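During the no-cost extension, the postdoctoral fellow (Dr. R.K.) reprocessed legacy sequence entries with the updated structure-token encoder. One reprocessed record is reproduced below for audit purposes.
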Amino acid sequence: MWHSLSMLGHDFRHDRFANYSQKLSGKSNAGYNMDNFFHSRFETSNTSFIHHLLEVQFFWFGITEYMEASMCLLLWQLHIFNNFECSNLCGDRPKKSSYFFAHANIAKAGEGLQTLTQDELKYISSITKRDQTLYEIALHSFYQRAMVAERDVGFRFLNCHLSL
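Re-encoded structure tokens follow.
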């Protein structure tokens, strides 16, 4: 959903359509195709198959709103983990949370030029359902991979709310 809103704002800022409703009504096919953008790269909507792809065929993938933890997970998988950098992610220092990331993207997508109506947001949600499912599966796998890494290194760098 956030990716679609970001694409919509990007295309609007680059004058690919006059307003959001023009793009969402189909009167403009300029710019990105928002209809299940990521999921279109998979030939099936079978969630078990998608989970299998992420677990077996992807050595690593990151989650944008958890970029620092994603990089820690990559370093762990490459066997070059950085204890110093990663041990601070669950500490008291300020960091960009998924809440911050999502709201920053919404602000950037709109940039105060115009706002999306509830109906437009519902429409975007309806045309990105498979992408949302893909994201949920990827996020779950990401949390699971991080938990394995966290047990191995002896501290939390992503699942901060859980005890080790």
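Residues 129-153 form the longest helix (25 residues). Residues 2-65+98-143 form one domain. The remaining legacy entries will be reprocessed before the final report is submitted.
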